[in-house]
Write a structure and sequence with these properties.
Shape: globular
CATH architecture: 3-Layer(aba) Sandwich
Distance between the termini: 36 Å
Helix content: 25-40%
CATH superfamily: LigB-like
CATH class: Alpha Beta
Number of domains: 1
Order of helices and strands: EHEHEEEEHEHHHEHEEHHEHE
Length: 281
């Protein structure tokens, strides 16, 4: 077992230097902060909550999806010092396996420093029959890694449990989330891009339908072609129903809006899940 899981996509998905990385993230967060200012018309309205219990964020290279992801991460800033544990789930892009996989490492490293793995959460998750240790699923995985620098900037110190999703079911993801749900100290992050390689207008229609399904907390309206992290999203939607959360779309764009052409685009969205007026955490 290697104690440290080093960054795999620093220098490609995001800057490898700490100063340059921090500057990029802070610029994205500042732009998102202006977009979400009280006098700016946006789709997000906080509901009886100071920060989200869960977020969905994209995981492409920062130049493509970073401006979108920042709209969710900026809402975590009030939770700095309160959120102590992040349960982070994303699809496996490189290794096929059944169920869910956690790493054996003690820490994940980024150019901004080291994030300890939450050992108590790992032990709890491993009690589930479909959750195993599989380092190969994490060695090159970007869907989890790219979220960490944003979390480091927004939250400061925290522990993380990175969970790669393989051939799993939404029900298994929901069970994992229920096992680790916790209270104000725990944040859930689901990593997922949206539609892939359609023309701009087709992607816009598909992603709008996905956003509608997420806001309705309706996992049955989602399919694999709608989001590469579909299983994680579906699992969260079921958990959100159980915990009376409200989903709000924060940003919905594609690579055709951020840093690419419009012939074939990848869709990106950011969502916040907060406690409803009549619900409980």
């Amino acid at each position: 077992m290697a104690i440290v899981r080093p960054p795999a996509v620093a220098g490609s998905f995001y800057p490898a230097g700490a100063d340059a990385l921090r500057a990029v993230i802070r610029e994205y967060l500042e732009n998102a902060r202006r977009d979400l200012a009280p006098d700016t018309p946006v789709t997000f309205t906080q509901v009886n909550s100071v920060w989200p219990k869960a977020i969905i964020v994209p995981h492409a290279g920062y130049m493509y999806s970073g401006p979108v992801a920042a709209h969710a991460f900026v809402l975590l800033e009030p939770s700095r010092g309160i959120v102590q544990r992040v349960v982070l789930l994303g699809p496996s892009h490189h290794v096929a396996f059944d169920g869910l996989a956690v790493p054996s490492n003690a820490v994940f490293e980024t150019p901004l420093g080291r994030v300890p793995i939450d050992e108590s959460a790992r032990r709890l998750l491993r009690e589930l029959p479909f959750a195993n240790v599989l380092d190969d699923a994490h060695h090159w995985e970007h869907s989890l890694e790219v979220q960490l620098p944003f979390l480091q900037e927004a939250l400061g110190a925290f522990t993380v449990l990175p969970i790669a999703i393989g051939r799993a079911t939404p029900e298994q993801v929901t069970e994992a989330l229920e096992t680790l749900w916790g209270g104000d100290e725990t944040l859930v992050v689901i990593s997922s891009d949206l539609s892939h390689y359609h023309d701009y207008d087709t992607a816009k229609r598909m992603d709008a339908a996905t956003a509608s399904a997420i806001e309705a907390l309706d996992p049955e309206r989602l399919a694999q072609e709608d989001a590469c992290g579909c299983i994680g999203v579906q699992g969260l939607l079921e958990a959100a129903q159980r915990h009376s959360l409200v989903a709000n779309t924060l940003d919905l764009r594609s690579s055709g809006d951020t840093a690419g052409g419009r012939g074939e685009v990848v869709g990106y969205g950011a969502w916040a899940f907060t406690v409803s007026k009549n619900g409980s955490p």
